[in-house]
Design a protein that fits this description.
Structural class: mainly alpha
Radius of gyration: 25 Å
Mean pLDDT: 93
Strand order of the largest sheet: 1-2-3
Order of helices and strands: EEEHHHHHHHHHHHHH
CATH topology: Methane Monooxygenase Hydroxylase, Chain G, domain 1
Distance between the termini: 74 Å
Oligomer: single chain
CATH architecture: Up-down Bundle
């Protein structure tokens, strides 16, 4: 057995030993397990059915909730950067969110290993529990602009969550903050988009589409705004890809059966694919055109 030596460093009891030629140290103040709360984390997979495949279902959804938590954390940082007109500082944050989203998309592949038979062994035990009740997902949607106060009705018995969602519902979304910044930069943004009931779903306007078109037609002049627009677009791009993979995974596992919360299941998820957070950033692309090249018949070779 390896010899363990102890000492005190800065008043903290510290231990060291040699394992395979490497010196390993640890102390009583902070450990990997205490820092990451692994005991608490790994004891949180509590099934209700006793069926072995329920563990997969729980772990995938719990890890998804952790990634959503990180997305929310990073999104708040990005919004603060936009509010402070520090766009270059926001880009790293947006890129991190995109990386998280790509990982979340891939996570559906793991859940897709759950066959219809596997799921049916424990589905009946889930009663009305459903991803529809994920308050973090709802918070993310609200922060991205998909506002709908009716969606928080399922949290009426969870006062703290209900109050938190109500607060976010009544705050400007990421896109609202981006449009406020465009107005500060001198772009003609309708007052109806700058001073409105934030709890209402955003309505697209031709004036805002025109503002983004100006930016995309002169990217050198508006480089930072252009890069912001592309990162915001990527956020929705990956979000929709995540939604699509969710829909296809559900289709693979339960077909067109209703969801546990009573929704239409796959059809409900399919309808969500038509929801756009940043409509003008998509519609504007159709209005862009390439400059006419006079010598296009001449071969450069």
């Amino acid at each position: 057995m390896a010899e363990i030596k102890s000492s005190k460093i800065d008043g903290i009891e510290t231990f060291s030993t040699e394992i395979d030629g490497e010196k390993i140290e640890w102390d009583t103040e902070l450990t990997y397990n205490s820092h990451l709360q692994t005991k608490r984390l790994l004891s949180s997979q509590v099934g209700v059915s006793g069926e072995p495949d329920e563990t997969l279902f729980i772990v995938v959804h719990q890890t998804m909730e952790l990634w959503i938590k990180l997305c929310l954390h990073e999104l708040r940082i990005a919004i603060k950067c936009i509010q402070d007109d520090q766009l270059s500082r926001s880009f790293k944050t947006f890129d991190r969110i995109a990386s998280i989203q790509r990982h979340m998309i891939q996570s559906w592949e793991i859940l897709a290993t759950l066959t219809p038979h596997d799921f049916l062994t424990f589905r009946g035990y889930l009663r009305k529990a459903s991803g529809f009740q994920s308050h973090q997902y709802r918070e993310l949607e609200f922060m991205l602009g998909n506002k709908n106060k009716d969606l928080i009705a399922v949290h009426q018995n969870e006062k703290e969550i209900h109050n938190a969602l109500t607060k976010i519902l009544n705050e400007p979304s990421l896109y609202d903050e981006a449009l406020r910044l465009l107005a500060k930069k001198g772009f003609e943004i309708p007052s109806a988009a700058l001073k409105r009931d934030w709890s209402k779903k955003y309505q697209a306007s031709p004036e805002i589409e025109r503002a983004w078109k100006i930016i995309y037609e002169d990217t050198e002049k508006y480089w930072e705004l252009y890069m912001l627009a592309e990162r915001i677009t990527s956020l929705e791009y990956y979000f929709q890809e995540w939604r699509f993979k969710h829909m296809k995974t559900v289709s693979r596992v339960i077909g067109h059966s209703p969801g546990t919360a009573g929704s239409s299941g796959v059809e409900y998820l399919r309808k969500a694919l038509n929801i756009s957070f940043f409509p003008e950033l998509w519609s504007m692309r159709t209005k862009l055109s390439a400059e006419r090249q006079e010598n296009f018949n001449e071969c450069p070779l």
